[in-house]
Amino acid sequence: MFENLQDKLDRAFKVLKGQGSITEINVAETMKEIRKALLDADVNYKTAKAFTDEVREKALGQNVLTAVSPGQLLTKLMNDELANLMGGTVQELNITANPTIILIAGLNGAGKTTFSGKLANFLATQKNKKPLLVAGDVYRPAAIDQLEVLGGQINVPVYTDRNSKDPIAIAKAGIAEAKKNGQNVVIIDTAGRLAIDEEMMNEIAEVKSSTNPHEILFVVDAMTGQDAVNTAKAFNDRLDFTGVVLTKLDGDTRGGAALSIKSVVNKPIKFIGTGEKMEALDVFYPDRMASRILGMGDVVSLVERAQMQFDEKEAAELQKKIRKNKFDFNDFLSQIQQIKKMGNMKDLMGMIPGVGKAIKDVEIDDNAFTPIESIIRSMTPHERENPDAINQSRRTRIANGSGTTITEVNKLIKQFEDMRKVMKQFSNPAAAAKMMKGMPKMPFGK
C-alpha cells in the first residue's frame, strides 16, 4: 500500500538530511520533490500544490529545536497535513435510525456487492446490529447469487425478488421486510453505472428519493487513481453522497485516490477495503493512514484487529494453560487461524513501525501457514494434546500424512517446544523479571 509514494517522499526528505536549519532554499527544494511525488502518485494537481504550499508556510514559520532535526520537523508537519488532507478525523456511519437505510452506489467492477457483504458483517459483529442485505442489482448476471452466497457466509439474511426488474420496488420492499422482521439496518446493493449514462443515473437518483437513505456510500476502486476522483465528483453532483469507500487499497502502490478525494468532493472516506475476506474492511482513520504513508506504521490498528479476533475469556483460559505448561497444538492451530483472520500478512507487518519499508520488496505468501496447518491436522487428537508423546515413528507418519518432510515436522516441533518454554517463562512475572535482568545492558547510555 502506497509503496511508490513512500519511496519518493523518503527521497524528498533526504534533501533536508544533515541540514542545521530550515531555510527558504532547502524547503523550496524539498517541497518541489514532494509535489512531484504527489503528482506521480496521481494526486490531483490543485490538491498537490495547495498541500505543499501549506506545508511550506508552516515549515518556514517554525523554530527548529536543538533536539529536533529539520527533517524530523518536516515529517511531523507532513504527517499532520496529510491527515488533514484526508479528512482530519474519523467519520463514523450514522446508524442511529431504526431501520437505518444505507444505499450503495458506484461504477461497474468497483466491488459494491463484496463491500455490501463486508459492511453487513462489520455491523453485525462490531456494532451489534441486525442487518438485511437487499439485492438491488437487476442487470448483472449472478449479482443476486453473489449477494446470497456472501449473506450465507456471514449469516446475514438477503432480500431478493428474482421476478422483478424494478430496483426501486425491490428497495422499498426490502425496507418493508426489514421493518416486519426487526432488522435495524438495510443495506441496498445497486447496479454499477457510468456517470455518463443518464438513464442509469436517473434510476439511482429515484432509488434515493424513494428510500430516503440515511447514508449513501460511493464505492470506488482505489487503483483507478485520478479517474476515481473524477467519477466521485460526477456521482456526488447527482447523489450528494455521505461518504466514500475505497476498495482494493491493498493493491494501490500510488495512493492518488486516498489523498485527493476528500479535497475534491469534500466528502469523507469512511471505509477502506484491504482484501477479499469478509473481515478485510477497516474504518478509515486519516491520522493512521498518514503515518503509514510516511512509513511510521500503524500499531493502533494492528492492536484493534488483534482484539477483534481474540476473545477475552478464551485469552484468560489460554493464559492458565501457558502457566501450567499445557499449551498444545490445538491452541497453536487456533492462534494461527485467528491471525489469518486479521488480514493480509504483508499488510499486517506494514503496520509495525519501520517494518513496512524493510519488507517492501519482499513477497510474503498468505499461504505460509498452510504446511504448518497440514502438519498439525495430520496429528491424532492425542498427539495434539500431548506434544511430548510425538516420537520418531509418529513424526514419520505425520510427515507422510501432511505431504511434508520429516525435516519440516522436526523443525515445527522444535520451534513449538522453544516457544512453549519462552511463553512459560514470561507467564511468571518473577521469572520474566529475572530473565530480563540477566540480559546484557543495551548501549543507550554513555
From TrEMBL:
Q: How does it assemble?
A: Part of the signal recognition particle protein translocation system, which is composed of SRP and FtsY.
Name the family.
Belongs to the GTP-binding SRP family. SRP54 subfamily.
Give the top-rank taxon of the lineage listed in the UniProt record for this protein: Bacteria
* A single BP term in Gene Ontology: SRP-dependent cotranslational protein targeting to membrane
Q: What is this protein called?
A: Signal recognition particle protein
Q: Where in the cell is it found?
A: Cytoplasm
Q: Where is the SRP54-type proteins GTP-binding domain?
A: 268-281
